[in-house]
Each structure stands twice: as structure tokens, then as C-alpha cells.
Amino acid sequence: MRIEVIGASLRFGRRVVFADLDAVFPAGVVTALTGPSGSGKSSLLAAMSGYLRLTRGSVVTVDDDDRRSSPKPVDVAWVPQGTNSLGARSALDNVMIGALAEGDRLPAARRRALDALEAVGLWERAGAVVRTLSGGELQRVGFARALATSKPLIFADEPSSALDAANTHLLADLLAGLNTRATVVVATHDPVLIDAAHTRVDLRERTLDRVDDAR
Amino acid sequence: MPADRWATSALVREAVCNVASWRARLFPVLILAVLMGAGGVAFAAGEALSLDHQVVELQAQGRLVIDITSVDPKRPVAIDRTSCEALSTQPDVTRAGLAVPSGFSDIGQLGTGVGIVAVSNTLFPQIRHTDVLVGSALRASVSDFRLLMPDGRVAQARMLAIQPRGLDVNSAILVGLDPTVTTGPSCRVVFDPHADPTQVIGRALASVQEVGDQPLVASTAYAENINPVTAYQHRPTRLLPLLLGLLGGFAAAMVNRARVGELATYRLSGTSRRSLALLLGLEQCFLAGTLATAGALAALALTAYPISRLAASLASVAAAAIWILTAMVLSIDIPLRRPTDLAKDR
Prior knowledge:
Chain A has 6 helices and 10 strands. Chain A is an alpha/beta fold.
């Protein structure tokens, strides 16, 4: 699923977050959405999820059959900034949530969650209580939760904000090797993650700066 | 927002895991629910027991013990025995019957000038199983003994427990009233200690028939200023279950506010507002249901306490309903908020 941002403007009161932004997020690749803090990366992700209404302009999702529609939250798996998780539950329980929300029965959701945990290298930690995981492992649980769903869009908001350098590199490796058909957008200003992404959209420049296969 | 496809059974599982796991943030609230449910009923049971002790103590002083007799002590009345004894079958009457003073005698084993009172077996049912009942003030060393009566016969005697003031028999011996006696000068009535004196005394007085046209009066040895049962019924603490429900619901809502970052996980994983609201509701139902169950179990366990099991259980259910209502009203904005905002609100 491709995302097109057309003449998008957003303001909160008198403060302009971004204006007249045009961007395309290609289907099935990892795009880094870059810009300094406060440039509106999280807000643009929220608008592309259908959680936030733009002041002007529009966001359109285009599926494989070229059908265009407005963004729907139900299409999005979100990897939040920081460490949102069910702290008292196991990593497996946390990853199963997305699959259960899609109507999977427990055994099927468990299978998908284990597959997703394997994809992020956490299969052996499936039974661990999330509260006992490191920040890096927690972030990978967030990605696994997104991967366990069959959603066409995966958005990650500053996934390395709470990580040290070693864990950031692990996350970058994960992004680089991500084997998914979903369109992945990572809002970040971390050079390591930007390098790991396949393309880049820089909000400050308000232009599309596509870097084919950044690596 | 389009609906998700959460199965209700999966949401129930989530609710149970989010509450019952000892690591869960809501687990302390679950413990609170158990303590509130059981504690609320235990407190009510303690209050009921205290009332019970109070009314029993007051009855010993003559409360709700009446003597129906002539208005004019100089003009004795003849109260119909049948109507007097029939009072014992009325609601709120513990026992009632004639008490006919039958003079004084010297009884070697008990002393000189001992009063003898002939009583109905509806007033002292123990008289059906023995010849003589001995007032508690006369002798207390053994409960059953043989008593040499003034007429020379040996009677089987049994000690009587201390009787309330107003019956005036603690220093007398009681004998069964001859079946041929059809009237007496005094009808004595002992009511249920929890009865309302303003209602039951008048009803008893109206039910007693007198042979003749003398007016009757019901006198009591205890002058009451405050009815302890009425005071109990209007005590502020009767609203305690509702207060507990309110506090529990408030506590649960505060914990919900502290875990919005966790709840964001659901929303950001494709859970709709409706399903998150349902999940929160299920969690509160589980917590409040625990309170109600703990209350009902406590009511069943406190068998020695004078409480209504049904009333105590219903009070717990009312507390649970208030809990759910309070928690949901105070948490209703959480599913309505933007999930990305919830995620930042850690």
C-alpha cells in the first residue's frame, strides 16, 4: 500500500507544524521520515494513520489495485515512541494483541506471535515478562507486535529514542533485514536508522528526497 | 473508526490477565476489592452484633417487656387467659401468658417468705418439663434439683435464667397455672427485642380481652428515650457499601489513568475505541464482581452474626454496581483519546 501526502498543512493554533507538504511513501519498503524534534514527524504519522486531521491538504492510501482511499487506523500497526507495552504480561502476550484484534483465535494468534518474535530475534524470550526486558528488546517486541498483524502499514515513531548505541544498531539491522510486504515508515532523526531505511522523506526540506536503497 | 474483530472471549481473557496476574497494575485493586467486600460485610455484621447485644441488654432492663393489667391498681381486672396466651403466636411476640401471684411460703431449701407465682406455659415454656421453676436470685448452685414444697410433696425443680425486669420472677418460684384457671389479673408479654415498641405494644393491648368493663394499661419497667433499633436503621454507616463502591471505583479509575501507556498498546495494535471501552468495562466487572463475591462469601462465613445473608449480599452487589459506574465514568475519556497521545502519556 502506497501513501501519498498532497499539499498537507498542519497547524496547532498559530503554530505551523508543516505546510504544503508533498510526499510519497512507496509500498513494501522502509522509509525514514526525518526532521528535527518538533518538525511534525509524529503528527504526520498520526495523520497518515487517520488519527489526526490535517488543517489543509490530504493523505491518500493507494492499494495494490490502485484503489485510493483515506487512511484508516485499522490498516496501521504502530510501533510507539518509547516503551509502550503491557508490562506485567509476557512478550508473547504483548505480540498476540494485534493478531487477536484481527479476529484470530488464541492458537492462531500464538503461532503468528511466535513467528513475529522469531523475526525480531526474540523467540527465546517469548515467555519473559515484558517488564524484565531491556529497552532494545522492548522495542523489538513493539516491532514484533506490528509484524504479527497483517496490516499493510507499519509506522514506528522514534523507535530508538530510548535506546543506547548498541541497541540502535540492532534495531537498524532489524529494519534493514525486515522481510515484510508492509509499507514501513520510521519517524527518526537517528542517522543509524536513516541509513538503514530504503528511502527517506525529510520534513524540514518539505520535499521528497528519495534515496533508492540507502544502504 | 472501523471496528476491529476482537472475539469477546479473547477480550475476557485479556481482562482477566490484566487484573488477576499478581504483577498487573490492577492486582492491588483486586486485593482492595476482596478487602472491601469482606470488610464491608464484617463491619455490618459487627454493627448488627453490637445492636443485638444492646437490645438484649436493654430487654434485661425491661425494654419490650410489658405487664397488661388494670389501670387502677385498687380494682383488679380479670384478663381472659386464652386471649393473653394467644399473644404468644403474634408476630414480634417472643412469649406471653398469665402470671398469677399465689402467695408466699417458707421453703426450707430456699428461704422464708418466698413468693409463688402460677404462670402460663406460653410465658415460661420450661414449666412443661418440670414441676417448679426457681428464680435466679434464690439459688444458683445446681440447675436441676428436688425441692420440698410447703405441702410436703417433693417437686422436681429447675433453676431459671435471669429474667427481664418487668416479669418480676427472679425472687419467686414458678408453678404451672392450673388448666381450669380462665382469667388472671396480669398478662405479661415479652416481645422480640428488635420490635418497634410504638407498634407492637398497642397491638398487644388491643388483642387482650378483659372479662368485665375495666380499662387495661400496658406498663413497662423501662422508660425509653431513643429506640436503638430505629437509631440503627438510620445510622450513617448504613451507606458504607455505597461509599466503598465509590472509593473502589475511584481507585480503579486512578490506576487506569496510570496505565494509559499500557492501554495505548491495544489502540495502537488495531483495537477500536469500542473494544477498548469493552475491555475496561470487563476489567471493572471482574474487580467489582470480586467485591460482590467476597461480600457474599463473608456473609455466608459469618454464621454466628445476626445479619441477613441476602441483605448483606445485595449490599455488596450495590457496592459493585457503584464501583463499575464510578470507574467507567472516570475512565470513559481513555478510549476516546487519540492513541498516539495515550502512548505519550506514560
